[in-house]
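tool_call predict_complex ligand=zinc ion
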Amino acid sequence: MESALIVKKADEYSVVCHTRVALDCQENGGWCDSEEEAQEWVEHECWIFSGEGWMCIACNAHFMRNLAQNRRETYGDRPDETPDDDLYEGIDTVR
Ligand SMILES: [Zn+2]
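tool_result ok
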């Protein structure tokens, strides 16, 4: 299984955080003997799989903060306007 999301060093594998947006980003997971174990490691640490790659907890927290901010900016000054269903679907798929 070839994947750019996993780095190999001295016969050990580690899953890479593909976003690296948070200042305290972990950048990559624990070093394991196989790609499968490396992936189990990040799953165990509750990293989020975004569809494009794994996102570490720090980056996920960073995105969640941004998401909350965006929601406030969108609806804050127009409280009587109901957000439409499409927007809610968009927010759900970010997870
Ligand atoms: Zn990260």
